[in-house]
Write a structure and sequence with these properties.
- The protein has 313 residues and is mostly helical.
- The protein has one domain: MetI-like (MetI-like fold, Orthogonal Bundle), CATH 1.10.3720.10.
- The protein is built from twelve helices and no strands.
- It has helices spanning 2-7, 21-34, 36-53, 55-58, 89-125, 127-142, 145-156, 169-198, 201-208, 213-221, 226-249, 278-305.
- It is globular and about 75 Å long.
């Protein structure tokens, strides 16, 4: 039995050899050379994240403050012009990136962790656990995502406490609503891979030597899902950003006046698009470029991390 446990399956995480820095650098160079579109997307993401973090330094005025100069075209004083309330569009685009990235990142972390853990329990234990969790996931997936998030966001109410300045109540409500919509999708993706890992030789060997179920799931199956988790994260994040923008566009997202790419494209602002197109161009462009960059990076990571796709290009 000891020979089986020593010769099958991946080694424990604490026994894994640490990749030398030179090997990491070579892998990064190879990725940049082979995945040019993914590298371009990563550069765009870095620029967008930097702009969102440095918004308090880069902004030209308070994005919530009303101004006297209404619908002023782009100039040296107002780089992206002003909107119908006299607010600086450049500052609102910067702070809108903060809101979108923050909500998207919080949603993805909770969704990936929750969906993966539920998939581990359902896929590995099987039986009644798998049946109940799978049917619940099917029911949630059957509803249109935006409609379901819209209904959930409106039904939760406005009395939900926030998490301070990091996630105010309105943003936390969006995170909860989007998580409920996305978690079943992540669960279905991860469950299939858990079922595949459950029947591998090293998992059978761990069962034979009497390893606890929790240890098999967390020490043998979960590490083999990390690559897929990275890919799913990079593709789910832009979808979460789009959902947040869609809910804000429909008026049930962030509070009125909060900088948001979706909110700045909605409401009465649409009346002025023909007269002042910059109030639609710049928030819409920021949203489109961000989603495109994450999709390019996600496709590149999928090609690099999925062994079934290696060597096809």
């Amino acid at each position: 039995m000891s020979e089986i446990s020593n010769t099958t399956g991946p080694p424990p995480l604490h026994e894994l050899e640490v990749m030398p820095p030179k090997r990491r650098l070579d892998g990064l160079r190879r990725f940049l050379k082979q995945q040019r579109l993914g590298s371009f997307g990563a550069i765009i993401i870095i620029i967008i994240v930097f702009g969102a973090i440095a918004a308090p330094i880069l902004h030209t005025s308070d994005p919530r403050e009303f101004g006297e100069n209404i619908l002023v075209s782009p100039s040296g004083e107002n780089w992206f012009g002003t909107n119908r309330d006299g607010r600086d569009v450049w500052s609102r685009v910067l702070y809108g990136g903060r809101v979108s990235l923050k909500i998207g990142l919080a949603t993805v972390i909770l969704t990936i962790l929750g969906g993966t853990l539920i998939a581990l329990v359902a896929g590995y234990l099987g039986g009644i656990f798998d049946f109940i969790l799978s049917r619940m996931g099917d029911i949630l997936i059957a509803f249109p995502s935006i409609l379901f998030a819209l209904t959930l966001r409106a039904s939760i109410g406005e009395d939900m406490p926030g998490l301070g300045s990091f996630l105010p109540a309105d943003e936390l409500l969006l995170v909860v609503a989007i998580c409920v919509v996305f978690t079943p999708v992540i669960f279905r993706i991860m469950r299939g891979n858990v079922l595949e890992q459950r029947n591998t030789t090293y998992v059978e060997a761990a069962r034979v030597i009497g390893a606890p179920e929790s240890r098999i799931m967390l020490r043998h199956i979960l590490p083999n899902l990390l690559g897929l988790m990275i890919i799913v994260t990079s593709t789910t994040l832009p979808a979460a950003i789009l959902t947040e923008s869609g809910l804000s566009f429909l008026g049930v997202g962030v509070d009125i006046g909060t900088p948001s790419w979706g909110a700045d494209l909605s409401g009465n602002a649409r009346i002025y698009f023909s007269r002042a197109p910059w109030i639609a161009i710049f928030p819409g462009l920021a949203l489109s470029v961000t989603v495109l960059a994450f999709n390019l990076l996600g496709d590149a990571l999928r090609d690099a991390l999925d062994p079934r796709l290696r060597g096809q290009k």
